[in-house]
Amino acid sequence: MGWAMGLRTRTAGLGVLLALLAGDVLAAAADLRSVRLWRAPDNTRLVFDLSGPVQHSVFTLSAPNRIVIDVAGAQLATKLETLSLSNTPITSIRSAQRSPTDLRLVIDLSSAVSPKSFSLAPNQQYGHRLVVDLYDGDADGAAADKPVTAGSTAPAGVPVAVNPPPSVRPVVPVTMEPAPAKLPPPAPMPSGKRAIVIAIDAGHGGEDPGALGPKGAREKHVTLAIAKELQRQINAERGYRAELVRTGDYFIPLRKRTVIARKKGADLFVSIHADAAPRAAAFGASVYALSDRGATSETARWLADSENQSDLIGGAGNVSLDDKDKMLAGVLLDLSMTASLSSSLNVGQKVLSNMGRITPLHKRRVEQAGFMVLKSPDIPSILVETGFISNPNEAAKLATLSHQQSLARSIQSGIRQFFQQNPPPGTYVAWLRDSGKISPGPREHVVSSGESLALIAQRYQVGLAVLRSANNLRSDTIKVGQTLNIPTTALAAQP
How are beta strands 113-120 and 128-136 bridged, if at all? Predict the structure, then answer.
């Protein structure tokens, strides 16, 4: 009898222990709190906001096309049917709780896609996130049931039929603000003369809002508005064409932004941003070019990256590495990077000077930093900080159409000044200059690291003594960041 009672006691205790353990497991499950979606030109991004870390696997199924996402250690704590799916290949998102801590999501598709997924740790703005990118088409030509992540194979007879798909909702267009009136397209250019192409990159986008203003203003919205206005103004001038890298509210990886610019044949890359600082009193616009250290490291990276080499060899860039040994390829890339950096500093200074006429400047010279979007060896690139969105006064100005137009006008003026002095061969602007129909005006050169006065004089075919005289120099000593005036009529001569 005592033995039986002891057994029952131990059994009861074990039951309580198991219940407690089950409760701990249940309590450890993360909540899937919300789902956000962005549509880009070539992909759809889904971001699942979670209360904690999870493990996941993704695989595809065909006939019909579906994406299955198994999330271990998660429970659904939101309504999926409220998500707008318009203009995406997604027709519905279904869910099933396979166990208290195992969640299955099924994405029904109207066409095949190539998924990629990854997890993100918390940052200042978001908690744990699971990101699933759905690229249009079957990019790698793999079978529809090919797993995307290691070990995420789809066994035969996988049960994926869960809740019936919700009805498709009508497309509801969303307009953030009235767009400015479009100007008529410029007149056609002479045969054989191309336009100068400016790639305009609106910083951040999608789940990356950028800096946040004191009243909820988001950098990604400000940058896109200024970028669109800049595009409109540039396209209004004959001989120029502006292309937007980001056309809507979606995220583009940093390196892909320069890839897009290269594919559009850009002669200049301009990245638009709005700064932030811990002190709300910080104010003023800035312009950045790539640092010398960043240029050196990027040259090495490009040489080591076969994908980048293939891109350039394929004719997408202005640097050809085809049939070049490694040493010569390194020299060519270094020369290209040096030339691009010099042009970047030059156009950056002109943009900065024009911006100073309509808004306060944070620094009166072009600053240099290793920003990823500036690391193109074949395209002059600048990053424009239009002001501090963390400053209440500047945030209010950045949100107004009139200030956005003024900023765009100042940036466009600086770009035009640069290209009138340095037009790419074969362009309409180069033809105008060579025909004497436009005056190049005084040329300027911003001194970069490693340059000497003699080298600058040789580059511009200007006599060294003439260059000293034009800049009131008593010696050949020059400083990095110094702006030199380059005479336009002087002939090269020995001092």
Answer: antiparallel
